[in-house]
Amino acid sequence: MDLLLKLVFFTIEFMAMVMLSLASFRLQIRYSLHKVFTIALVSSIVSIYIREILNESTFALIPTFVSEIVMLVVLFRLPILFSF
After folding, report:
1. Helices (H), the chain
2. Computed from CA positions of residues 26, 27, 29, 30, in that sequence, does the dihedral angle turn out positive or negative?
3. Do residues 11 and 40 make contact, with C-beta atoms less than 8 angstroms apart?
4. Residue 56 — φ and ψ, nearest 5°?
5. pTM for this one?
6. How far, CA to CA in Å, does 71 sit from each of 4, 5, 29, 64, 68?
């Protein structure tokens, strides 16, 4: 139950972060909410796995951002510059 609750709140947090990064480059958010949700869900799963299962809370930030950057580039077909 604790992991499910963390998954929900981490997904909301990562959705806000992805939407902020897309809005900063003035990319469309309206018709791509399913992509934003997918990126947020994958990032939150990676973060929870590293923090809770592997017990490496200090190193959880790097793989989470790497997974987010890769998903942004792949799903939105953007150059690597727009994903940072």
Report:
1. 2-24, 33-48, 61-76
2. positive
3. yes
4. -115, 70
5. 0.86
6. 22, 23, 15, 11, 5
| Residue-wise pLDDT tens digits, 23-44 | 888 878 888 899 999 999 999 9
Interhelix angle for 61-76 vs 2-24, to 10°? 50
Specify the long-range contacts of residues 31-39, CB closer than 8 Å, at least 24 apart.
32/76, 35/75, 35/76, 37/11, 38/71, 38/75, 39/14, 39/68, 39/71, 39/72, 39/75
Neighbours of 36 (CB within 10 A): 22
Eight-state DSSP code of residue 81: G
Regions of the chain short of the pLDDT cut 70? 82-84
